[in-house]
Design brief:
The protein has 5 helices and 12 strands. It is α+β, with helices and mostly antiparallel strands.
Amino acid sequence: MLIKTIKAALFLLVMLVSAHLEAQVSALATPSPVPALTLIKVEGGKMAMMGQIAVTISSFEMSKTLITQEEYEKVMGNNPSHFTGKDLPVDSVSWYAAVEYCNRLSQSQGLTPAYAIDGRTVHWNRFANGYRLPTEAEYEFAARGGNKPDKTIFAGSNTATDVAWYADNSAQKTHPVAQKKPNSLGLYDLSGDLYEWCWDWYDETLSGGKDPTGPAQGSLKVLRGGCWKSPEYMVGVAQRSNSFPYDNDPVLGFRVVRSLVLAQPTPMPTPTPMPTPIPTPSPKPAPTTKHG
């Protein structure tokens, strides 16, 4: 009788342990949902970039804040940040890691990835509806307030402390996103907290026109916005910096955008119909010549 009781108890214990392990495996197998990003629509318009270069920007959407550590980790499965906290912006992110995040986020939402990535060669598919990094022109356009610009030195104010974390007030660290005032579009931290990666290769000479994307090649990528250790002037909307795309310092972060006006494929030229050939008349027989 005692042996039967012990066997029954062991059987019950095994069943309980098995059920607990199955629950743990199931929890691990079920991926946590990717947090939805809040996107702000930026209506297109014209701008004097850096106060001097005329550009026209098409409408796009931009994430309300820098990508947070929680948002990054849900998509990438890791958190490279030097400063840690789920509501802090993810830092120590290279340009290459940022474009990879964009593609994975797009795939998680059934969107067409914006980038074709082959090692350290990245091509932007302008026809794609997925997430991507802003161009330098888009970043400045959004920071200035879009087609109804704020006309302020910093993104939303003429007083840096209203809208930015920088050397004078950051205590030498990043801060949770959206703690300062937004600009007129409702976008936060476009000045300060972290430098933000842009798509463009860096060049001292800016390109104008419609939706400029910068040089075709280079060695440095554009950074905008300034960071927690920048002097006040560097968090202004007209300031720019740069870094190698593989750099992953604790001053580097990013936000994402989506195109609302996708590039259109160049239409194939309509073939010109060939004219109906005019029948070639049959040659007349040569006249018969009589020889005397």
